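Run log, item B.
One chain of 201 residues. Sequence copied directly from the ordering sheet:
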Amino acid sequence: MLKRIAFSYILGFVLGYFGFSQNNPESFYDKGVKSFQNKNYKNAVENFTKALKIRPDYLSALYFRGSAYMAKKTYDKAVYDFLKVTELDPEYALAYYQLGKIYYIEKSYPTAIIHLNNAIKLVDNNSELYYMRGYSYFKTDQFNEAIKDFKNVIDLDPDKTDAYLNLGLSLCELNFKETALIYLEQYAAIKGYKNKILYCK
């Protein structure tokens, strides 16, 4: 009799545990994070999707699923997830960062600027954000804005060599040739171009 009771208790616990696990979004989220960390993005997407079916407003799952799609270069689905994150939480800076990065990668610079602006409003000390926005300004002929951003990059990260080059090129475009040459020479010195002369056209 005691054996039957014990067996029934254990069976009930096991079934209850697995039932809980199958309906617990955190369980799927944890599996998704582990898969993401192991670069198994397909499994990560599947687990984050399961978590989101149970809890559609699970921000972290939504963000990480977007990041997994981004890692797979499935940019349209990544954009959908990141936009959904910003709808649910307008101050989720990382989602704006990822949106800006996607459009930057795809060379859709005007759209990249919009999302990078939103990211910088929330996080104003990140050199990569300023660099991407500065380069986006440069590619859309907004040279004054590009100059400001590349200067911010250099202030935040003096080792970001391409910022010196693009700052110099932006100054060239506005015909500030002497100042441009200073930054172009700094770029050449950092890169070790001893015999290479950089100048404005």
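Observations after the first pass:
- Residues 2-22 form the longest helix (21 residues).
- The chain is about 80% helix and 0% strand.
Flagged for discussion on Thursday.
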